[in-house]
Specification:
about 425 residues; about 25% strand; about 20% helix; alpha+beta; single chain
Amino acid sequence: MYLAYILLIIYTTGVVNSGQNKLQCKDEAGNDVDWYVLYKVPKTSESSDPIIRKGLAYLYITSDTVANGWQLSKKEIGSKDSVPGKTLSLLYKDDLAPDILWILYNDQAPNKNQSTVRYGHTKGVLMTDNTRGFWLIHSVPSYPPVPKTGTENKSRKLKQSEQREAGDTNDDHNNNNDDGNMNMDVDNDVPDGEYAYPKSGQLYGQSFLCISMGSNQMNAVGLQLMYNQIMTYRYNLPEIMVNEYPSLVNASKHVRPKKAPYFHKEEIVSSGRQEFISFAKSDKWQKELYDDLIAPELKSDLLAETWLNGRGKLPSECSGSKVQNVRSIVLNAANVDFKSSRDHSKWAVTQTNKKNRNWVCIGDINRANTQFNRGGGAVCVNLPQLWTNYRGSVNEVEPCPKKKKGFFGRIRDSIFSWFG
């Protein structure tokens, strides 16, 4: 009996850590990659590509293909054979649940018609088998679907007054606010227990970043998630791993930092030794993530693409480190261009090509004063080839606000106008 038990452990461990079952970011062939970024293309009715017309097309760059730039996938993002479908496949293998710790967080959980504005404006997945794992950051509401295993986080039912936030409710997709024009009920089509992509994620552009990492990075990520004040909608905490990852346990149970400063910077190192910097803030910090934290820390001017359709949107900021809003995007690999109002992605890129400052940041929070009251963050990486692709996607930028002229400046302009 004892021998059979030992053999079962060896077999299970081998299944989790072999080939396609390694907990790492995956490409479409199921191969391990150190990291990838993904751009879900907005639904574009005039496109000749049927997948783009459906709003299910995506571009991707992996650590192995970064020299080739954006690649347009022939697969739909809702396919189990897509890049995120392959990456999240083990989440839906019920027999592996005892050996994998995972956390799903989203301020608009799948099949939930309620907002969670008292939590961070954050969305993502973290998984580890106690040897390796990955962190997937994305911008898609109601995603990914709930597995059959794990535990639902049963937070108290929100009061009606908490269910709406001016200018940003249910991550921009409730048709009862100023942000979007999609009803939350459409998200109820997402099935439980298998990989899928919600209809509410089809209309707008969306962003993804996946980082493969060793288990020794997990507590650092967990600390960032605590500052981000994630809303966990499902988690799986195997008893044998609980003591190894206290910050992940705290993040999953909605434990928040109780002392200032209410922001935190953390270096995250991937399995392939690529360095990333994670920036996180809580609602108590009451400042703007990009202008007040990321740009000064990176000592760089940024171009930021975030959701600016709602109330409280911030103009381009040009005092100190500049943070300018992106107005339109062009994705040549998909032969599409679109206004920022059709893009729900959250990313930023340094404005100019400077040595050791080719930063790309992907996160989950918007440039709006309503976001001062929300936790959230972004993860940045300094990679010239990746920077080239994101910087090349910027089509139009909101200029710096004109400085108000004093009395003498107005008199001077009047004199010039009189005399031509």
